[in-house]
Amino acid sequence: MRTPRRHALFGRRFLHHFGRLVRTYWWSPDARRGAVLLAGAVALEFGTVYANVRLSDAERRIMDALQDKQAPAFLGALSVFAAVSAGFVMVAAYRIYLRQLVEIRWRRGETADYVDRWMSERAYAQMQLHGGEVDNPDQRIAEDVRDFVGSALGLSLSLLAAVATLVSFGGLLWRLSANWVLPFNSAGLRVPGLLLWVALLYAVLSTWLTHVVGRRLVPLNVERLRYEADFRYALMRFRDNIETVALSRGDALERRGASTRFQNVMRNWWQLIAAQRRLTVFTGVIGQANGIVPLLVAAPAFFAGTVTLGTLVQIRFAYGQVSGALNWFVYAYQEIARWRANVERLSTFSEVLDVTAADLARSAIHVVPGDKPALRLTDLRLDAAKGGTLLEPVSVTVTAGERVAITGPSGSGKTVLLRAVAGIWPFGAGRIEVPAGARMLFVPQRPYLPIGSLRAVVSYPATAETFSDERIVEALNLLGLDHLVARLDETAPWAQQLSPCEQQSVGMVRVLLNAPDWVFLDKATSALDEAMERRVYALLAERLPRTTVISVAHRPEVATYHTRRWTLSPTDHGPSSLRAA
Questions:
Q1: Under a CB-based contact definition with an 8 Å cutoff, are residues 400 and 374 in contact?
Q2: Which of 8, 97, 454, 497 has the most C-beta neighbours closer than 10 Å?
Q3: Which positions ≥6 away from 448 have C-beta within 8 Å?
């Protein structure tokens, strides 16, 4: 696997991609409603800060009443504290609720963008060109988008609350320590807002030290996501191919491969927990030490009788709020590291999607609709994805209704030729004119069997409701799949339950049901016996007499079912040439 590229943690590239991730949803039609919900969440964040200010004042009144032994004042302050606490609980609960509503909307928009860009005809070229850099696209779309959105909202709202807390309690802390005199000499030293300056200095120092201690977490989290996804994907591949592995007696090799991938997970995990341990110990020390600082600074004023016990309690509460706001980066560092890893993976994925789209746009193979019901190849040259020519320039035409067999040795470029016609092979040059408005269906050697009912599987790429039961049952019977009729509404892992012969028969059922104008068969009958293969082509001639059929095949018998033949033959200097007959 190709080693992922390293980039600056918070450089210009990060800002570009972060802006793009934000714009995807917040410039969409749904953004207006999302903005209303976000405004509500922001208002409730401010509400929690205001509630904390009121709670600190209530605590001061409670402690002063206790110190002065004033029962009525104590009960009054206690009732205020209880009322504010109840309001705080409700505000905190609805703050989370509104944030989650925004989160699911943002995730929906972000996911739709990536799904649209990934699940397109460009997907094949993306994997051919950039497979090493788009490992586990499923995880990036399903998990990285989810984590990015959740962390982006959580971090931004908590940062906003930290700023509001700093403003609210910073002013309070300034007023509480505005006239303190430090006993440095006989006259003393007066420092206005002493505790605010102490909190600021402590926060700057601890933030810098936290970054020094914890900066290794960002690349470790990037690696964690990649290793975990590789391990999970290997297990999924084994599950999807368990019969083939069992028949090949490859279980021992698969276990070794799974063990090796899990060792990567474990090695990364040990590095990650060691880095997290160092950061946790460091932030814990900072937090504990920071709790003592306001008492040490305020103690002389309390002993001198210039502040009351209640004021001392309020000072400690206010200092904790200010310090927490200033140390937001310290406490959020681990989540920032994980979030930065999500942004990096999504950024790399997005770059690959953009580059591939640009590659296809610059492709010298131009697939365009023609003005006649024919397929015309003009000076078409096909290259390999990694360089080198596969097929020398060729110019041929297929008119509607013809049946063409494409033969030649393995590796001569037969399948690549069909991919070029389908518009998913950008490597090469030339012009391909396809019949405008014609319905074209490509049937590969191993048909794709989607998750769903058997009805949906045989109807693909049409929806499950497109064809009546009578048509589906008839097609199954014609292709020797009558034993599956009773399972039409059953959902099962069909790729594991159907044999290669049955899977190819399902592919031909799709052809009969969808009745395309043009059908391209890429070794689509290679798993069928000769009698069934002969029956397939007889059914195509009988049921779809106007359909143009272009078949890639190795068996020489296939050519007898067609009216024309293209033969791809390797030349002395490597590339294949095409001979039409």
A1: yes
A2: 454
A3: 460
Does the pLDDT of residue 1 top 60, yes or no? no
Which one, of 423, 425, 442, 419, lies nearest residue 368 by Cα? 423
Residue indicated by tokens 């499923």: 138
Q: Is 529 exposed, middle or buried (0-12, 13-18, 19+ CB in 10 A)?
A: exposed
Euclidean distance between CA atoms 534 and 553, whole angstroms: 13
Separation CA 193–CA 312 (nearest Å): 15
Radius of gyration of the chain (CA): 34
- Rounded CA-CA distance 434/397 in Å is 10
Average model confidence (pLDDT) across the chain:
82
CATH fold of the domain at 365-580: Rossmann fold (3.40.50)
Torsion angle, alpha carbons of 292, 297, 300, 304, to 10: -110
- Measure the CA–CA gap between 436 and 238, rounded to whole angstroms: 42
The correct answer on CATH 1.20.1560.10 for the domain covering 12-360 is: yes
Give residue-wise pLDDT tens across range 395-421: 999 999 999 999 988 888 899 999 899
CA distances from 39 to 44, 45, 405, 465 (A): 9, 10, 64, 43
pTM score, two decimals? 0.64
- Domain extent listing, the chain: 12-360, 365-580
**Residue 464: phi, psi to the nearest 5?**
-65, -25
Say if residues 352 and 537 touch (Cβ distance below 8 Å).
no
Distance CA 352, CA 118 (A): 10
Which two three-digit tokens encode residue 501?
A: 């012969």
12-360 and 365-580, same CATH topology: no
Round to whole Å and give the CA distance between 545 and 548. Answer: 8
Task: Specify whether the backbone of 411 is left (phi greater than 0), alpha (psi in -120 to 50) or beta.
Answer: left
* Amino acid identity for residue 115 in this structure: V
The Cβ of residue 545 has, within 10 Å, a number of other Cβ atoms equal to: 8
Tokens of 349: 């994925």
Please measure the distance between the N-terminal and C-terminal CA atoms of the chain and give it in whole angstroms.
Answer: 44
- Residue 357, class by beta-carbon neighbours within 10 Å (0-12 exposed, 13-18 middle, 19+ buried)? middle
Tokens 């999924």, located at residue: 236
CA distance 276 to 217: 7
Q: Alpha carbon of 213 to those of 277, 286, 408: distances in Å?
A: 10, 13, 62
Tokens for 322, please give them. 């200010």
Tokens 């034993």 map to which residue?
483
Q: What is the largest CA-CA distance in the chain?
A: 113
- Please check whether residue 517 is in contact with residue 400, taking contact to mean a CB–CB distance below 8 angstroms: yes
* Percent of the chain predicted with pLDDT > 70: 87
Kindly report, residue by residue over 359-383, the tens digit of the pLDDT: 666 778 888 998 889 999 999 999 8
3-state secondary structure of 462: coil
- Look at residues 284, 286, 307, 283 and name the one whose alpha carbon lies nearest to residue 295: 307
What pLDDT, on a 0 to 100 scale, did the predictor assign at position 247? 62
